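User: Hi! I'm a student and our assignment asks us to look at how structure tokens line up with a sequence. Could you show me two examples?

Assistant: Happy to help. In each example below, the sequence comes first and the structure tokens follow. Example one:
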Amino acid sequence: MDWLERTARLRQWSAGGVRAPHKPLLLLYALARFQQDPDSELPYTTVERALADLLVEYGPGRRTSPAYPFHHLVNDGVWEVHTTRGPGSPGTGVRELRASGATGRLAENLRTSLRHDTSLLPRMARILLDRHFPPSLHDDLCQAVGLELEPAETAALPGRPRSRQRDARMRQLVLTAYEYQCAFCGYDGRIGTVPVGLEAAHVRWWAFDGPDSVDNGLCLCSLHHKLFDKGVLGLADDHTVMVSQHFVSTSPAGRQVIDLAGRSLLGPQAGVQRIHPRHRAWHAQQVFHGLPRSRLTAVP
């Protein structure tokens, strides 16, 4: 049984690049729990709290009950659910899952394979990370679920055309286009002639068919790149910065983030393609959280 292929082909509703990371988040969480205690079962009430937090931080803006992936992941053959009545999930009803004492864990055959092949767990985890999240969030997500991964080579992902490779030139092209400054705040730090803390961010994530092109890239400082990928920051149709109303902070540094609301992008330089509306719209719909703050209310 090819567990890597099953991992890469989790059944989830998707159309037009819609993000549905609910099953991947649950499977990452379950792999982390297996890593800590291979024999443990996970009560729904425990998973509900943990997965709800993960969905807020790493899921799309729309809300989904943790009950849906808890029940439906069984159909992928990697997860099993038991209740006080025996094997099988009672459905997606939160009350039924709680009242029936539902517990879940990795499927028995998968647990056996993980015990026999210690390289399988990190390979599965890396497939989930690469297919559903940008690299800027991988370390944070592993820490959030409690997953420990050693550096390892990731096999070619099943189901993804082998011809699609990342373009190593993108970082240089994007940083040049934005003249080596953060498009949001203007940060342009260097050590000698080498830029530090500046990164090329994909607007539409590469994992969701975002191209390695300048019209899908922004030069951002490390902080604003992470906030952009977490949906705190976004792009409006008029090429100004959006700041989510859900983001709050009272510190001076946090207020600087809030003050970005309504600010025009810095760059790109003349003659370079601006962010394509299709990529901007994807980020606004699939990554940005909630509604944007208005410029007038950004500073009290």
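Example two works the same way, sequence first and then tokens:
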Amino acid sequence: MYSVEMPLQLYFNTEEPVAIKDVADSLLAMEKLAKRLPIMLSQLSGVDIDRYELSVQRIESGSLIEALGMLVFLSTPEQRDALIKFLETHPMGKPLKYGLLTMLVLLLISDSYKLLTDFTKDDAPSIQGNHNTIINLTADQIDVPQETLEDALAYATGGNRKELVRAAMGVTKPIADHSNASLHVGDAGSNVAIPAEAMAEVPFDANLNAQEHDLPSQNVLLQIRALDRDKTDSGWWGVLPSVVGDKRLKIYFEDGVDIRAIAFRPEVHADVTVTYRADLNHATMVPKHITVSHIYPAERQ
């Protein structure tokens, strides 16, 4: 096997003490996050990487520095030479070799924070804005089109998103919930960073299991596809064409809703709430069921 070694250094800028356990957790999480780096590196360089090894070079206290090294293995000397050429004869020059992996790590972490806040539905303008900035800065510094970098990121973050988000949160655990803390590529002077205002928006205590979200709609067409005139909690199925398309969903009724007003009508207008189930491993929320709160009389439709 032929190999190329690349450094990876993160600077955790914080005024508060960092717990030893959190540093250990961060390093273990980095191992899980780092397995996505060869995927991105292959996408960007066009070189097939067979495997990798991650090692710790040094840890510095104060504002924490984690300096690591990644050894990537290639099957032929031609593949090794192609990767070295990508790293060292790049328009950005040799310095690219010493910042590329760290920039990609920061991009993975930033993308994970965006996924997490999208999932929890928290308003996080600093995370979204800074994520766009990191993409632009990284694409500029490694001299690739932004679309190429975004494609590589999407390819690397596919699959188990829960694992990705947990790993990203684990890497930054040393400064989770610290005031005015930030994360930088290489050192505190780096302009490729997740600043304090973005870190403050990260919901580190979020539940990563599937969550439900209720979205109400008023006076919408509800088509009845199956019913049980004797029950309000089973046997009812319907479609909301203007809300969820042609997907058939189970129907429930709030207390006080008279199902006799709907029992002999194939379609009605109603006030409803659609319950969606979201999961980090799915890009969209999936509608699960309908709850009817009000049925409009036929003559008023």
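Here is something you could point out in your write-up. Strands lie at 2-13, 51-60, 65-74, 182-185, 193-194, 211-226, 237-239, 249-253, 267-278, 286-295.
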